[in-house]
Specification:
It is a single chain. The protein is mainly α. The protein has one domain: Orthogonal Bundle (Farnesyl Diphosphate Synthase), CATH 1.10.600. Helices cover 73% and strands 0% of the residues. The longest helix has 33 residues.
């Protein structure tokens, strides 16, 4: 039976900034001082909190779901990255599957609360998010094995998460929210890209045709660099659509540069693991700086 520490490792806490960042950016976009985007924080703070619960629970759920699906397929039999519960034999597949469903349930309950207070069609959005999380590596034809993982991460942990957070607070959308979704989504994709870059050798043997496997080592490293550049460009677009104070968000590059140097220097295997945390912190800094600037403005 897996220990509590192993269950925490299985939840992959280094990926959690990717769940916090879109909510922070979405709150900032909602609070931007325009006539059409007024938030009564005394009344609406709980909506932001529920949005954070949804995002964190979905991130944990997809991590456990990937652990389960990759484990039963044998993809994790030879593991380079952090420990997987099923692949290492620390927990049974059924136990990890139940953990994933429990996390999905937490996200669902919090999502229902937001839908009841805002719009019931959000239930459909939540259902699509859950299906996308499960079928990333689950089902007979997981899209993560077809090189589409980055697209879905950009859509759901970027655009949907940021714009969705803004919508439940102001029941409207805005251009700053859209560009925040682009920036946060680009860095969320960068986390997945460096993860898959590390796993190219083992994924190739296992038949997992991720985008990194398709692009090859060199192409994947330049994709990572391009995503960091896109996140910087998104800062400029947010500033153009709102306030030039948002340009303070470019300071995220001070953190991202560390990971960028490691990736472009040709690091492989375990040497790429710290880049996961660095990129996650860069994403959180992006959201905090840009979202904070929007709130102050």
């Amino acid at each position: 039976m897996a220990t509590a520490s192993q269950w925490v490792q299985g939840a992959r806490p280094r990926t959690l900034p990717a769940a916090i960042a879109p909510v922070v950016a979405g709150v900032g976009a909602a609070g931007y001082g325009t006539a059409s985007a007024q938030v009564s924080w005394g009344e609406d703070w709980w909506k932001a909190l529920l949005a954070l619960v949804v995002s964190l629970a979905l991130q944990v759920a997809v991590n456990y779901a990937n652990d389960y699906s990759d484990g039963v397929r044998g993809t994790d039999d030879v593991r380079v990255g952090p420990m997987r519960l099923v692949g290492s034999g620390a927990a049974t597949p059924d136990a990890v599957k139940r953990a994933a469903f429990l996390a999905f349930g937490v996200a669902g309950v919090a999502g229902l609360g937001l839908a009841a207070a805002t719009a019931w069609w959000l239930v459909l959005v939540g259902l699509v998010c859950v299906l996308a999380a499960w079928y990333y590596t689950g089902g007979s034809k997981p899209y993560g094995y077809l090189g589409l993982g980055e697209v879905m991460v950009f859509v759901f942990f970027g655009l949907v998460a940021v714009i969705g957070t803004t919508y439940v607070l102001i029941e409207d959308w805005s251009w700053p929210a859209l560009w925040c979704g682009v920036g946060v989504g680009a860095l969320a994709c960068a986390i997945l890209v460096v993860n898959n870059l590390r796993d190219i050798p083992t994924d190739t043997v296992a038949g997992k045709r991720t985008l990194a496997v398709r692009l090859g080592d060199g192409g994947t490293r330049w994709l990572y660099a391009g995503l960091v550049f896109d996140a910087a460009l998104a800062v400029v677009l947010v500033a153009w659509a709102s306030t030039w104070w948002a340009l303070l968000g470019l300071a995220f590059l001070l953190i991202a540069a560390r990971g960028l140097r490691i990736v472009l220097a040709g690091a492989v295997g375990p040497a790429l693991i710290p880049v996961l945390q660095t990129t996650g912190l860069a994403e959180l800094a992006w959201a905090g700086l840009v979202g904070g600037a929007l709130l102050i403005a």
